[in-house]
Specification:
The structure is a single chain. 42% of the residues lie in helices and 15% in strands. By secondary structure, the chain is α/β, with parallel strands linked by helices. The chain starts with a strand and ends with a helix. Bound molecules: 2-phosphoglycolic acid.
Length: 252
């Protein structure tokens, strides 16, 4: 499986025009990198996860290197669920991935049980879930990181078949590192990664939390993560492309 670089645009940008501009800048930047580094598409997959409303406009089936993902999905297929978006609607718009259980959604009340249902619903129609897990600052200080990760996984992955389990991607995102400009030290993140490797032998494990072009590489080289979820830095085309450039040169 190829390493993944996931851009989580969160609730940005504010207009469709800006969304298209950002998307096209990333596409252009990627093409340039690809020209300089022809093996890139074999080595890394880049996923843009914009707000739902921009997905139809950014649908891009003709550019192999840039995939689309969503930031969430419903666990329901269809019907009277006001405000919800089903996995099949996302698939129909060209999404290949969906982020599930992001800490910003958990803060709004999403539970591990809901996450479990969303994962199953996504997998059912072959939309690839990227499951986010991570500890809060308080839990970290209390030395509970492994316990928190284990509990989140146990509930989120309840009753999954082996095949479903094998199709997951996991993102380790310490809550305290997300959007704070205070990334987790790569060696500390590595401890979480090694813990997760006990359960996930083949699946991709990504790191997320204040990643930028200056700090990204050690997560690959020192900690052996297989990609990133990038929030703030993915909203600045130049910065995001710089990350991709550096990552494309790194040995995975
Ligand atoms: P950040 O966000 O890069 O802004 O910390 C990460 C995320 O949203 O997963």
């Amino acid at each position: 499986m190829k390493p993944l670089i996931v851009a989580n645009w969160k609730m940005n940008p504010q207009t469709l025009t800006e969304a298209k501009q950002l998307f096209n800048s990333v596409k252009k930047g990627l093409k340039n990198i690809k020209n300089a580094c022809p093996g890139l598409s074999r080595r890394v997959e880049v996923v843009i996860c914009p707000p739902f409303v921009y997905l139809p406009q950014l649908q891009t089936t003709n550019y192999k290197l840039l995939k689309l993902g969503a930031q969430d999905c419903s666990w329901k297929k269809k019907g009277a669920f006001t405000g919800e978006i089903s996995p099949s609607m996302l698939k129909n718009l060209g999404c290949k991935y969906v982020i599930i259980g992001h800490s910003e959604r958990r803060k709004l009340g999403e539970t591990d049980e809901m996450i479990n249902k969303k994962i199953k619903a996504a997998l059912k129609i072959k939309l690839k879930p990227i499951l986010c897990i991570g500890e809060t600052e308080k839990e970290r200080k209390e030395g509970k990181t492994s316990e928190v990760l284990r509990n989140q996984l146990k509930k989120a992955l309840n009753n999954l078949t082996i095949k479903q389990f094998n199709n997951l991607t996991i993102a380790y995102e310490p809550v305290w590192a997300i959007g704070t400009g205070n990334p987790c030290d790569p060696l500390e993140a590595k401890k979480a990664l090694l813990f997760l490797r006990n359960f996930f032998k083949k699946q991709l494990i990504l790191y997320g939390g204040s990643v930028n072009s200056k700090n990204a590489i050690p997560y690959i080289k020192k900690a052996q993560f297989q990609g990133f979820i990038i929030g703030g830095a993915s909203l600045r085309a130049k910065e995001f492309i710089e990350i991709l450039k550096r990552v494309s040169k790194a040995q995975w």
